[in-house]
Amino acid sequence: MAKRLCSELFVSRLSFYTTEEGLRRLFSPFGSIKEVRLIKDPSTQRPKGFGFVAYESEVEADRALKALNGRIVDGRLIFVEFAQARGPKKAADSQEDASG
Fold first, then answer.
1. pTM listed for this prediction
2. Other beta carbons less than 10 A from residue 64's beta carbon
3. pLDDT in tens, 32-65
């Protein structure tokens, strides 16, 4: 059975000085990027050290993952993996309500 790939990547251990534009430049040689999201602390607007890069195709995402996972970027060893699909938030909330 073939493994199902995803076109969105999760990038962790980023430098706090990495920007969305820098992330886009780093990942753009591997394909057409749909979206780059650098996760920031809502109160300070400082990056939290991880983000997401979405490609147009799974093949492009796979190529970027293989090329960039374990590379040093902005002085930090980064990890790249396929993003996990997030389930609906309400399901987790309702489980807490049911147990409490």
1. 0.80
2. 22
3. 999 999 999 999 999 999 999 999 999 999 999 9
Q: How far apart are CA 79 and CA 62, in angstroms?
A: 13
Q: What is the mean pLDDT of residues 74-90?
A: 84
The residues near 93 (Cβ < 8 Å, ≥ 6 apart) are none
Residue with tokens 């749909």: 34
Handedness of CA 55, 20, 70, 31 (dihedral sign): positive
Contact between 38 and 18 under an 8 Å Cβ cutoff? The reply is yes
Cβ atoms of 6 and 34 within 8 Å: the answer is: no
E strand spans, the chain: 8-12, 33-40, 47-55, 72-73, 76-77, 79-82
Rounded to the nearest 10 degrees, how much is the dihedral formed by the CA atoms of 63, 54, 24, 33? 80
